[in-house]
Design brief:
Elements: H1 26-43, E1 47-48, E2 54-56, H2 57-64, H3 69-74, E3 76-79, E4 86-89, H4 94-103, E5 112-121, E6 133-142, H5 147-164, E7 170-175, H6 179-195, H7 202-207, H8 224-228, H9 239-254, E8 259-261, E9 273-280, E10 289-295, H10 299-302, E11 310-316, H11 317-326, E12 338-342, H12 348-360, E13 365-367, H13 378-388, E14 392-396, H14 398-402, E15 405-410, E16 419-422, H15 426-432
Parallel strand pairs: 1-5, 7-8, 12-13, 12-14
Antiparallel strand pairs: 2-4, 3-4, 5-6, 6-11, 7-9, 9-10, 10-11, 14-15, 15-16
Helix pairs in contact: 1-5, 5-9
Bound molecules: adenosine-5'-triphosphate (ATP) and magnesium ion.
Adenosine-5'-triphosphate binds near residues 124 and 131.
Length: about 425
């Protein structure tokens, strides 16, 4: 390395602001949720895709659009020290998925349904529900033009909320139409805001000619009335766009998915057209969007491919689980079947062989370990066994080892009997355990 060496400083090191550690038992809740998502994706025939966390910066600039919050101020960009390339920690995954689909000609034999899970990075002001590293799970249906795929994705997200017992999420829908329809609306919008330029805040003035649609998304209470009076994009949509939107709405209605049309719903990336939607809740304060998505039929072309329709969504894992916790869900660690109580350290080699046989048979076992003072008293080991949550204590005492046996003591079921088993036949005891892990 030819850079200045950074000397280590004394004192405690801490993590980066806005980038959190995920610890047990919260990590158990995340693992449980991810397992539910994997099962759900399999049932809807979506396949897993994993793209790199680092991509070339131009992918996001071209994909998301120059005048977006993400590209303007939220991206972690850095120079590859070896060749000077500009690289970026992905702020979202859709652009990377499309890049990968193009690079590997993934759609050569037809459309593909894909999903991903993983960390995203945005330099935002950290607060509850808004972090600088956060996990997203996303689904993307590439190569399908029909509104039934938009509906499938929305039904899939709704099924997920039902599956995990999430309450109080509602669906908001809008259609952004096609570029030429948006252009006509944009002109009307600019004219409207020009008429009320006194009421515009600094952000809105900056966006007036670069991205006036985003002004509709303002959170500034003083601008609500001029925003409410602004021309509605829905009134500028042509027949084909309206038909697409109506098909989607009728599938949702037939399938009992409630929604409201929110004509002010726009998304933070430039790549959306036709359908956009958000699942929102009032229970997470201002960070209320748990899942968001839409159609992006022009992104493939924008990234140098041929025109390919596509639609997808991404959910924020932190927000979904925050809401799940508010609905009473908690992380539960995987169940522990047995805790091994060991009095004689010299028997350890033999005992570890026995535990290995049990684990191979699917039993989860936590082994008592030595301290500098030895193995500790039987009483203290039982205490540990109890707090571990194990269903059984496996007692490898001196008498047991001499007889080549183990005592199995139920810890949770007062009515169950303690038994002893020959070490050689422990695997058959394992088979009698109800649903070992
Ligand atoms: P918001 O309006 O809340 O900033 P967004 O429009 O930037 O959201 P998307 O880029 O569409 O959000 O991401 C989809 C989902 O990812 C969001 O609905 C949210 O649940 C989650 N998400 C986005 N940014 C963050 C963040 N900084 N921290 C945690 N979760 C996030
Ligand atoms: Mg954002």
């Amino acid at each position: 390395m030819n850079e200045k060496v950074i000397l280590p400083q004394a004192g405690k090191l801490t993590g980066v602001k806005g980038m959190n550690d995920l610890l047990p038992p919260d990590s158990a809740l995340v693992e449980w949720f991810e397992a539910k998502v994997r099962q759900l994706m399999a049932r809807f025939a979506y396949r897993n895709i994993r793209t790199p966390i680092v991509e070339r910066t131009p992918l996001f600039v071209r994909g998301l659009g120059q005048v977006t919050d993400i590209v303007e101020k939220e991206m972690y960009c850095f120079e590859d020290r070896l060749n000077g390339d500009s690289l970026t920690l992905r702020p979202e995954a859709t652009a990377g998925v499309v890049r990968a689909a193009l690079e590997h000609s993934l759609l050569y034999d037809g459309g593909k349904r894909l999903y991903y899970m993983g960390p995203m990075f945005r330099h935002e002001r950290p607060q509850k529900g808004r972090y600088r590293q956060f996990d997203q799970i996303g689904a993307e249906a590439l190569g399908f033009p029909g509104a039934e795929v938009d509906a499938e994705l929305i039904l899939m997200a709704s099924a997920l909320w039902a599956e995990i017992g999430l309450r109080d999420v509602r669906l908001e829908l809008n259609s952004l139409g096609q570029p030429q329809e948006r252009l006509a609306h944009r002109q009307a919008l600019i004219a409207h805001f020009e008429q009320h330029s006194d009421a515009l805040d600094e952000d809105a003035r900056r966006r007036l000619y670069s991205n006036p649609l985003r002004i509709l998304d303002t959170k500034n209470p003083h601008m609500q009335s001029i925003v409410n009076a602004a021309p509605k994009l829905l009134d500028f949509l042509g027949e084909a766009s309206l038909a697409h939107f109506n098909t989607l709405k009728s599938i949702l209605e037939t399938n009992g998915v409630a929604y409201t049309v929110n004509p002010r719903l726009v998304r933070g990336m430039d790549y959306y057209n036709l359908t956009v939607f958000e699942f929102v809740t009032d229970r997470l304060g201002s960070q209320g969007t748990v899942c968001a998505g839409g159609r992006y039929d022009y992104l493939f072309e924008q990234l140098g491919g041929k025109s390919t329709p596509a639609v997808g969504w991404a959910l924020g894992v932190d927000r979904v689980l925050e809401l799940a916790k508010a609905s009473g869900l908690t992380g539960t660690e995987p169940r522990l079947d047995a805790y091994a109580i060991i009095t004689d350290p010299t028997a350890m080699p033999l005992i570890m062989g026995v535990l290995h046989t049990l684990r191979t048979a699917g039993v989860s076992v936590q082994m008592h370990t030595s301290s500098p003072d030895g193995m500790g008293s039987m009483k203290s080991q039982f205490k540990r066994a109890d707090t571990s949550g194990a269903r059984y204590a496996l007692i490898f005492g001196a008498d047991e080892i001499k007889a080549q046996r183990v005592t199995i003591k139920p810890l949770r079921d007062a009515a169950a009997q303690q038994v002893t088993q020959p070490l050689a036949s422990l695997a058959s005891w394992a088979a009698t355990l109800q649903s070992p892990l």
